[in-house]
Amino acid sequence: MADALTGISRALREAPPDRVVEAADQAIRSVLGALGTAVFVADYRINGLWPVLDSRQPQVAGQAVQSMVQRCFSSQQSVRGGEPQGRCRLYLPLTVWGERLGVLMVELPQAPSEEVVAAATDIAGEVAMALRAADRETDRYRRARRQERLSMAAELQWELLPGRSISHEAFQLAGQLEPAYTVSGDHFDWSLNDDRLTVTVLNGDTIGLAAALLTAVTVNAMRNARRSGGGLVEQAELASDTVYYQHRGHRHVATVLLELDCTTGRVRAVDAGSPHLMRLRGGAVTRLVLEQQLPLGMFAETRYDLQEFDLDPGDRLFVVSDGVWGADPSGREAYGQRAMARSMRATRLQPPSEAVGTVMRELQAFHADADLRDDAVVVCLDWHGGADRTDG
């Protein structure tokens, strides 16, 4: 099987980026004796998974198939589904570094052995890596993901994201933007370097395309400082000066910058008029109140100070924008007053990639399923505890 996996990897690398699905189908048929395959990708809201269509694929419509696909995607485990005449459909998660892309369905002539399931799981990993790489070179997979047209602002925002989830031996992290197809200014970013995880969440100023452009400038200024070796203070100060000298204080961005030491759980923070931090420890939700400093870009040459706090193993940290915290449809109390804590407690048994969706769905229900009046961001971080490291 090792040689076969090498052959599949080579076939995926040599395929044009818009034909990765077809290359995978042909290789899997050859190696596993499969009758056919199908690739499903998650939409922007993660409300459903949709097939990347190809004329040679088996029929993949139907509630039973969709149920199996969703079960596989949510559990991140392989799932088997029986078919008439003794055939079997095997559903495998397509995931790269914790980023959930979708599901690979493999239709086999009979129930697979454990060896075949293990081989199929490895193949799904290769397909996922190829899809992630190909996604920057073709529009095919993004077109399958979107169930309606994105606004220009949303197009910019989704292009700017680092991903929607990431896993590490010490943590799991996920984020979600809403309204997914029209989001404009709110945003999140992250980067992992040398066991230090940097996370930023932004409350964008103004609306529409102007908000998206302002966010793009802010995020890239922080990335520029970070990639040049600058810490949180340098990131905040460069972004603040960049925004100020472009807009002279008429536009600014409320932002929180966090840096987690993945081995100790120590968090450094810069609170620039920021989004809100909530910690779930056991069954208790507590708001973490930092000293708020000026939003980025409000004044020239603004200087920022670091603050620090600790996470315990098993802690869950939520960061939410004002569109979540302050939502108050129909004159009711704000979502952040009590309803949000209830929804966060309800996520205790879910991984972050599922937890952000739960909080967003509860927010939609709080709005009586009406369109959100403001952009909303939810980021969820679980710290498991530092892993022992042995170099050598």
Short structural summary:
The model is unreliable at 55-59 (pLDDT under 50). The chain has helices spanning 2-14, 20-32, 63-75, 114-134, 140-145, 152-160, 208-227, 232-247, 322-325, 339-345, 352-366; strands at residues 36-42, 49-51, 79-82, 88-96, 99-108, 165-167, 171-178, 187-193, 196-203, 254-261, 266-272, 276-281, 284-288, 307-310, 316-320, 376-383. Helices cover 35% and strands 26% of the residues.
Protein model, in words:
This protein is an alpha+beta fold. It is built from 11 helices and 16 strands. The strands form 3 sheets. The chain has a 6-stranded antiparallel sheet with strand order 6-7-16-15-12-13. Strands 2-1-5-4-3 form a 5-stranded antiparallel sheet, with helices on both faces. The chain is globular. Residues 55-59 have low confidence and may be disordered.
